[in-house]
Design a protein that fits this description.
It is built from 22 helices and 18 strands. It is α/β, with parallel strands linked by helices. The strands form 4 sheets. The chain has an 11-stranded mixed sheet, sandwiched between helices. It has a 3-stranded mixed sheet with strand order 1-3-4. It has a two-stranded antiparallel ribbon with strand order 9-10. The longest helix has 39 residues, at 416-454.
Length: 643
C-alpha cells in the first residue's frame, strides 16, 4: 500500500503550486536523459568571447548529466525536498525515517554530489536513491571563474531555458550568491542584457532555491558558509512574488541564511512592494532607481510608466520604511555623462527630500555600468563617481557607496553569460542552416538540369556525333579489309583523319562515318523511327530518379526537431518568449484564456480528490492531470502580462 501510495503521488506532482500540498513528492525532471535541444545546438564553450584570464569549465556529475530532447523522467530532487517528505518516501521503501536526516546532511552539509559518497547509508538504499532520486535538477551548462574568484554559471533548465547564478567571495569572508528569479525578463530595461532578451517564463520555487542550495553545499564541503543572497540575477523578483517568497523562506529555514542577509531587488513593482510590507520575514529591499525624473526613467526602464511612475514608487517606499522600520537601498547604474553629474546627484537628493523619505533610512548603491551589446552607454569615470558621492553626502546627508566591481573580466553582469551562450547557439545554427541551404541548392540545380534534358523537344538530327576523348581516336578496321585496299589511299585517308583528331580539345563534337566492314545482324532494333528519342527519355527519367534518391530534400533544423519530438514532448509546458499585452483585444483574449485555465486547474484538483479516494481515472482524465504543469506555467505567464 505504501509503495502504491508513493507511486500515485509521483504521478500527481507537476507544479510549484501543487508542491506546497503534496506529501512525498518534491520531485524534479532529471536532466540525466535529455540534451539541450539537438546535436546541432550543442554549445561550444564561449572562451573566445571572454578574457583569457577567466577559467571556463563545464560540470558533469551524477546529478547533472547532459540533457536530451526526450521528456525526462520524474525523480526526487534531494537538493529541494523537505525532510518530512523524504521520510515518507523512505517509509514507502521500508527504510527507517532517520535515514532522511542522514541523506540530507550528506547533500547540504557535506556537499555530496554522488550517492557512493554516503558511506553511512546502506548499499541497498543507495541503489534505490540512484534509481529514483537525483542531487539537483539544474544542468550546469557553462561555468566561468574570474581572477577575483567570482564564479558565474549558466544553468540549462529541463525545458531548454537558460538562467544564471553568480557566487562572489569577499576579502572579509563574506560569500554572496546572486540568484535568478525568471528565465528572461519582461521589464525591458534598455541597458540590461536580460531585459534585451525578453521574458520566457517564471522560475518555480525549487528552481530558485536550488541555485542557492548548490552554492551552500559546495561551500560547506570546503568548510565555508554562504552568508548573503541577493535576488539581482535574471528576472524581476517581485513579478514572480509567490515563488520567490516561498524560496526565500526555505533559504532562511533550511539553509540557515539570516532574513536580513537576503535582499530582493525590484525595478519598482509598486503593488508587490506594498504586499511585502505585510510579510513576517525581515528581508531587505533594494530599488533600481537610476533616474530622478519620470521622462528619463521611462526611457531607461519602460516599466516605470506601467506602475505609476516615480510618484507612486516613492510613496510606496515611504510607506515601506515607515511601517517596517527597515532601510531601503537605491541602486543607481552610473552611465557616463548621462546620470553621473553633480546636477543629477542634486536632483536625486531633492527627489528623496520631496517625498519625505528619511535620509537615515536610505542608502544609494552606485553601480558602474556593465556594457552590453544592445546599449551604447559606457561606465562612468572614477572622478565622476567620487563627485556624485560627495554631493549626496555633503549637501543632503545621504550615504552613498560605489559598488565593488566583481567578475568584470567574465561579464558577470545580469544576463551577459546567457547572451554569450545563446549567441554561440545562434551562430552554430546559422552555420548549419547555411550548409543545408548550399546542399539544397546544389541538388536542386542537378534536378533542374535533368528535368530540362528530359523535357527537351524532339529534333531530327541529320548528323550523329560523339564526345571525343582528348588523347586518342580509335579507328578500327578489319585486318582483312585493310589488306584488300590500296595502301597509299588508306595512308592518305587516315593520316588526314588523325591530323584533324589531334587538333581536337575536350568536348569537341566531330563527324564520323561507319566503315563498310561494319555489318548489322538485323534491322529489328530500328523498326521504330522514334526509338532513340524514347530511349533518351527513359534514361533521363532513370537518372532523375537516382538523383532524387541521392539528394533527399534537406530539412531545416526546426523541422528536424519537430520530426524527432515525441508525442509526450508536444505537451511540454509553455516556454519561449511572451510579449506584453498592449491593446484591448489582447487583454480580452488573455482574460478569456485565464478563465479557461482556471477552470482546467479546478477540474484537475477535483480529479486529484478522486484519486485520493481510490477512484480510477480514465485515459482522458489522466491526460488532463498530466497537463497541470503546462497549464499552470501558462496561467502564470498570462497573469504576469495582465498586471
Amino acid at each position: 500500500m505504501r509503495m502504491s501510495k508513493a507511486l500515485s503521488s509521483l504521478i500527481l506532482v507537476s507544479s510549484s503550486r501543487a508542491a506546497r500540498a503534496f506529501t512525498v513528492n518534491r520531485l524534479c525532471r532529471t536532466t540525466a536523459s535529455f540534451t539541450a535541444s539537438a546535436s546541432s545546438s550543442a554549445i561550444t564553450r564561449p572562451s573566445s568571447a571572454l578574457n583569457d584570464a577567466p577559467t571556463i569549465t563545464s560540470a558533469t556529475s551524477a546529478s547533472t548529466s547532459t540533457p536530451s530532447k526526450l521528456q525526462p523522467p520524474l525523480k526526487i530532487n534531494l537538493l529541494t525536498i523537505h525532510q518530512p517528505e523524504l521520510e515518507e518516501v523512505l517509509s514507502s521503501w521500508n527504510q527507517p525515517k532517520y535515514r532522511a536526516k542522514q541523506i540530507l546532511s550528506w547533500v547540504h552539509a557535506k556537499g555530496a554530489t554522488h550517492f557512493d559518497e554516503m558511506n553511512n547509508i546502506p548499499k541497498a538504499l543507495r541503489s534505490l536513491l540512484e534509481t529514483h532520486a537525483t542531487i539537483g535538477s539544474l544542468h550546469l551548462d557553462v561555468e566561468v571563474v574570474s581572477k577575483d574568484g567570482t564564479r558565474k554559471r549558466a544553468y540549462k533548465l529541463w525545458d531548454g531555458q537558460l538562467i544564471e547564478s553568480v557566487l562572489m567571495p569577499y576579502e572579509d569572508g563574506r560569500q554572496t550568491a546572486c540568484i535568478s528569479s525568471q528565465a528572461g525578463c519582461a521589464m525591458g530595461c534598455v541597458f540590461c542584457a536580460t531585459g534585451q532578451m525578453g521574458f520566457a517564463r517564471q522560475l518555480t520555487p525549487d528552481e530558485i532555491f536550488e541555485q542557492v542550495a548548490r552554492f551552500s553545499a559546495e561551500l560547506s564541503k570546503d568548510n565555508k558558509r554562504l552568508s548573503n543572497v541577493v535576488m539581482m540575477g535574471m528576472g524581476e523578483p517581485l513579478a514572480n512574488y509567490r515563488n520567490v517568497m516561498e524560496a526565500i523562506r526555505r533559504m532562511n529555514s533550511d539553509l540557515g541564511i539570516g532574513a536580513r542577509k537576503i535582499t530582493v531587488s525590484t525595478v519598482g513593482v509598486v503593488p508587490n512592494i506594498r504586499k511585502l510590507i505585510t510579510e513576517d520575514i525581515q528581508i531587505r529591499l533594494a530599488v533600481s532607481l537610476h533616474c530622478s525624473s519620470d521622462e528619463e526613467r521611462t526611457q531607461l526602464l519602460p516599466a516605470n510608466k506601467r506602475y505609476g511612475g516615480l510618484d507612486e514608487l516613492m510613496l510606496a517606499i515611504r510607506e515601506y520604511i515607515d511601517t517596517t522600520k527597515r532601510r531601503v537601498t537605491f541602486e543607481w547604474a552610473l552611465i557616463e555623462n548621462e546620470n553621473d553629474t553633480p546636477e543629477v546627484a542634486r536632483q536625486l537628493g531633492q527627489l528623496l527630500k520631496r517625498f519625505g523619505i528619511r535620509k537615515d533610512m536610505t542608502h544609494v548603491n552606485l553601480i558602474p555600468l556593465n556594457p552590453t551589446g544592445g546599449f551604447e552607454g559606457s561606465p562612468s569615470g572614477r572622478g565622476n563617481v567620487h563627485e556624485f558621492v560627495d554631493v549626496l553626502s555633503r549637501e543632503f546627508g545621504i550615504t552613498a557607496t560605489p559598488r565593488v566591481r566583481r567578475g568584470i573580466d567574465i561579464n558577470a553582469g545580469c544576463g551577459q553569460l546567457t547572451a554569450a551562450v545563446k549567441k554561440k547557439e545562434d551562430n552554430l545554427l546559422a552555420e548549419e542552416g547555411s550548409q543545408q541551404k548550399e546542399t539544397m541548392e546544389e541538388s536542386r540545380r542537378a534536378v533542374d538540369e535533368l528535368k530540362s534534358f528530359a523535357q527537351a523537344p524532339e529534333t531530327t538530327m541529320s548528323m550523329a556525333g560523339v564526345w571525343e576523348d582528348e588523347d586518342e581516336v580509335d579507328v578500327e578496321v578489319e585486318v582483312e579489309e585493310i589488306k584488300s585496299q590500296d595502301q597509299s589511299s588508306l595512308e592518305t585517308r587516315y593520316s588526314d583523319h588523325i591530323r584533324k583528331s589531334n587538333s581536337l580539345v575536350q568536348g569537341s563534337i566531330v563527324d564520323f562515318e561507319l566503315h563498310n566492314a561494319v555489318v548489322f545482324d538485323g534491322d529489328d532494333d530500328f523498326e521504330d523511327e522514334n526509338y532513340e528519342n524514347d530511349l533518351d527519355k527513359q534514361e533521363a527519367a532513370r537518372l532523375l530518379s537516382l538523383v532524387k534518391l541521392s539528394f533527399p530534400e534537406p530539412t531545416t533544423s526546426s523541422q528536424s526537431a519537430t520530426a524527432n519530438t515525441s508525442e509526450d514532448e508536444m505537451e511540454s509546458p509553455l516556454v519561449g518568449p511572451t510579449t506584453t499585452i498592449m491593446d484591448d483585444e489582447s487583454v480580452r483574449k488573455a482574460k478569456k484564456r485565464r478563465k479557461k485555465l482556471l477552470k482546467n486547474m479546478k477540474a484537475i484538483n477535483n480529479l486529484k480528490i478522486m484519486i485520493s479516494k481510490g477512484k480510477e481515472l480514465n485515459e482522458d482524465q489522466m491526460e488532463k492531470v498530466g497537463r497541470e504543469n503546462e497549464w499552470l506555467l501558462e496561467l502564470e505567464s498570462v497573469e504576469h502580462n495582465l498586471q
